[in-house]
Design brief:
Length: 441
């Protein structure tokens, strides 16, 4: 079979996929009170299906041409030098923190017992790699409204043992990265941005994910773009890139692409440790690593999703503004979300913190919304120090976690993802208005 004839066959398959997608979606409609309004979800069309099938027909089941294309395009979009795709955002965070323990970093290497400043207000996989690398998390409180780490408390928490700051941009709302970069430089600390919920957020003219020494991303179905599962680590530092690549790919010292040998032309002519001289460089390991690569079929979906990312960002911002419009009349009951100066957030969700003086509780409002099939979510783990998994970890709490406890007890959020339509907004608005007015009366 010639390449030309195979190309024609693929085009026929792709044409059939478009017809299948059209048939699947033609009868979908929203019925208020009966149709669920999720907090997040996959937004895709026939293009993602075509990319997925195209990759499957290659039968290159590990990372391949689509993974390379995705990595380049995401790095170019954000404005960083290097992007490495991985199998999840959680794996991305594991690689990012583990990279700080590499012997290649010499005196800047993080060692067991060293401290890492972070928050207890967030998702477990921002915290877990700190513990897994035998580092000590130092928990700093958050500011209400932004729900990001409190900058004055960060500097107060620094000791001689501090090696790094690991911060997530809460619900897509950028932390004060300018201040965090300044603090990291002042005290010679590493700064890792967990950008999993904030893809497309900006501070000034720069995207989040470009301020830290390392940044991470997630492409789980709830996030800004999806591969089903998937993530990325990003950096502009060549040494960190080398470390991250080694840790992602079994800990190997070799940097040849899969399917390629002897890119360095020194495969059998080097000395490593106590191995025999000339031991095959493809089987030399300089780190205790993992296999966290993505598959090319996942990456193919990511390539299609990246085309839609600018539109997704705009829709999230529009949906956030619409919810703010119909919640603002009841501002006496809520602490409404706020952004730092010069921030343009690509919001992941719309957080509402119920004031202690409100005539209703969070549970009452959540039950009302859920009862009308409007999905709600807590701010992930609330206060992670109160979660069963972290009851006995080695940790330090710097200055108390009063605001984090308020978040745990009084805050929930609803979705702003691009699938929320004008019909959805009209229904959400009516439910919130009815609930608030009833409580006022």
């Amino acid at each position: 079979m010639t390449m030309n004839s195979e190309s024609l066959m693929r085009k026929k398959i792709f044409s059939l996929i478009e017809k299948i997608y059209a048939r699947r979606t033609r009868d979908s409609k929203f019925i208020p009170g009966e149709s669920a309004i999720p907090y997040a979800g996959r937004i895709y069309d026939a293009d993602e299906l075509i990319h997925l099938v195209d990759a499957s027909l290659d039968f290159w089941l590990t990372a391949g041409r689509y993974a390379q294309q995705f990595e380049k395009q995401l790095a170019d979009f954000l404005g960083v030098r290097f992007c490495l795709s991985v199998n999840s955002g959680s794996s991305a965070n594991l690689l990012a923190v583990s990279a700080l323990t590499s012997p290649l970093l010499k005196d800047r290497r993080a060692k067991p017992g060293d401290e890492v400043i972070t928050t207890a207000c967030g998702f477990p996989t921002t915290l877990n790699p700190i513990i897994q690398n035998k580092l000590v998390p130092v928990f700093v409180d958050v500011d209400l409204g932004t729900y990001n780490i409190s900058i004055p408390r960060v500097e107060q928490a620094i000791t001689k043992k501090t090696k790094a700051i690991v911060v997530a941009h809460t619900l897509g709302n950028p932390a004060d990265v300018v201040a965090l970069v300044r603090i990291a430089k002042k005290y010679n600390l590493w700064f890792i941005e967990d950008n999993c919920d904030a893809l497309g957020s900006r501070v000034g003219d720069r995207y989040t994910g470009t301020f830290g020494h390392i940044a991470t991303g997630s492409f789980y179905p709830a996030h800004h773009i999806t591969m089903g599962e998937g993530g990325a680590v990003l950096t502009s530092d060549p040494l960190l890139k080398k470390i991250l690549l080694s840790l992602r790919d079994w800990g190997r010292d070799c940097w040849c692409e899969p399917g390629r040998d002897n890119s360095c032309t020194k495969r059998f002519t080097q000395q490593f440790g106590d191995l025999p001289y000339g031991y095959d460089h493809k089987y030399v390991y300089s780190h205790i690593g993992y296999n966290l690569k993505i598959t090319d079929m996942q990456a193919a979906i990511g390539v299609a999703q990246l085309k839609k990312l600018p539109a997704f960002i705009r829709r999230r911002q529009e949906n956030f503004k619409k919810i703010m419009q119909y919640v603002r009349p009841y501002a006496d009951f809520f602490i409404l979300p706020t952004e730092q100066r010069r921030v343009n957030a690509s919001w992941f969700g719309f957080p509402l913190l119920i004031k202690e003086t409100a005539p209703f509780t969070r549970d009452q409002m959540v039950h009302a919304l859920e009862g009308h099939k409007i999905a709600t979510r807590m701010l992930f783990g609330g206060n992670l120090t109160k979660q069963p998994a972290y009851a006995h970890i080695r940790k330090r709490i710097a200055g108390g976690l009063g605001n984090t406890d308020l978040v745990m007890n009084n805050l929930f959020w609803i979705g702003v993802y691009p699938g929320i339509s004008a019909q959805h907004h009209a229904y959400i608005k009516s439910v919130i208005q009815k609930f608030c007015r009833a409580k006022i009366q």
